[in-house]
UniProtKB/TrEMBL annotation:
Subunit description: Homotetramer.
PROSITE patterns for this protein: EXTRADIOL_DIOXYGENAS, VOC
Listed cofactors: Fe(2+)
Catalysed reaction equations from the record: catechol + O2 = (2Z,4E)-2-hydroxy-6-oxohexa-2,4-dienoate + H(+)
Record-linked SUPFAM superfamilies: Glyoxalase/Bleomycin resistance protein/Dihydroxybiphenyl dioxygenase
Entry keyword annotation includes Calcium: no
Domain called VOC: residue spans: 7-122, 150-269
Record's keyword terms, sorted: Aromatic hydrocarbons catabolism, Dioxygenase, Iron, Metal-binding, Oxidoreductase, Repeat
Name recorded for this polypeptide: Metapyrocatechase
GO molecular function, one term: ferrous iron binding
Pfam families recorded: Diox-like_N, Glyoxalase
Record carries keyword Oxidoreductase: yes
Length: 307
């Protein structure tokens, strides 16, 4: 049964050079800068997103992930989930309204994998950039770069993914859409959704806590993924893998790095999920095909380079 979590809302990422990062996320990925705050953080959104921002960049001496936030149905849902998170054993703290610009009260909690997550019910909405919500055109003129359509998901690494997956299923109401298991039945990876998407967050077992593998943004089509590959070469952006297709989710994808070493993904397509579907299972010995469907071979750097 769904618990009131609607969708991914925002992610705060640490970068080494704020100006370089802003240039990358606006000129390469095609996000739109919407604000800055007195802490020096920069707020960005993709053009189809109704909320004012989905990505927050913070300058730091080490790259990586600060937290991922999820939008909830209403304040009553946040209050109910706050109580259930406490009962589950999470360390829970309240972040006051306005700590992130335009965002209401947030409830932040930890997880067995060492990641921090947030729940909130209200954020300033500025509408779809360049087209609005009334008689909108198909797309806005003036988009740059890859023309990313939305922040879609994160893939996170840490220990005890079983505990974090239980947290997301039992407390937050996510469904397990896809998984990788070894021949003893141990789950090595889990892909969870709070709606109909292939996944809204994914976890892979890793001894180090709180690691980020990638943040992902949706593109319109496979042609746009190929165009993204061209832009990666045109801008001398550090490429990782692709263009290719995943076996898991069947999304068409390419991976690359921001100037601080945080991995980005842009993708198109992918499976859909209903609660009565049950999880798709991949055997660990088929992991190469599960991740890189065409090559069917694992890439060690893809699995091990994290921030």
């Amino acid at each position: 049964m769904k618990k009131g979590v609607l969708r991914p809302g925002h992610v705060q990422v640490r970068v080494l050079d704020l100006d370089e990062a802003v240039k990358h996320y606006t000129e390469v990925l095609g996000l739109i800068e919407t604000d800055r705050d007195d802490q020096g953080r920069v707020y960005l959104k993709a053009w189809t997103e109704v909320d004012k921002y989905s990505l927050v960049l913070r300058q730091s001496d080490a790259p990586g992930l600060d937290y991922v936030g999820y939008k909830c149905l209403d304040e009553a849902a946040v209050e109910r989930l706050q109580q259930e998170l406490t009962e589950f054993g999470c360390h829970v703290e309240e972040i006051p309204p306005g700590e992130l610009k335009g965002c209401g009260r947030r409830v932040r909690f930890d997880s067995p994998t060492g990641h921090l997550f947030e729940l909130y019910a209200s954020k300033e909405q500025t509408g779809r950039w360049g087209v609005g919500n009334h008689n909108p055109e198909a797309w806005p003129r003036g988009l740059r770069g890859m023309k990313a359509q939305r922040f879609d998901h994160c893939l996170l690494y840490g220990p005890d993914i079983a505990g974090t997956i239980q947290l997301f299923e039992k407390v937050l109401g996510f469904d397990l859409a896809e998984q990788v298991v070894d021949n003893q039945g141990n789950r090595l990876a889990g892909f969870l959704t709070c709606g109909m998407k292939a996944h809204d967050v994914a976890f892979i077992e890793c001894p180090e806590k709180g690691k980020l593998h990638h943040i992902s943004f949706l593109l319109e089509s496979w042609d746009e993924v190929l165009r993204a590959a061209d832009l990666i070469s045109m801008t001398d952006t550090s490429i990782d893998i692709g263009p290719t297709r995943h076996g898991i989710t069947h999304g068409k994808t390419i991976y690359f790095f921001d100037p601080s070493g945080n991995r980005n993904e842009v993708f198109a397509g992918g499976d859909y999920f209903y609660p009565d579907h049950g999880p798709i299972t991949w055997d660990a010995e088929q992991l190469g095909k599960a991740i890189f469907y065409h090559d069917r071979v694992l890439n060690d750097a893809f699995l091990s380079v994290l921030t």
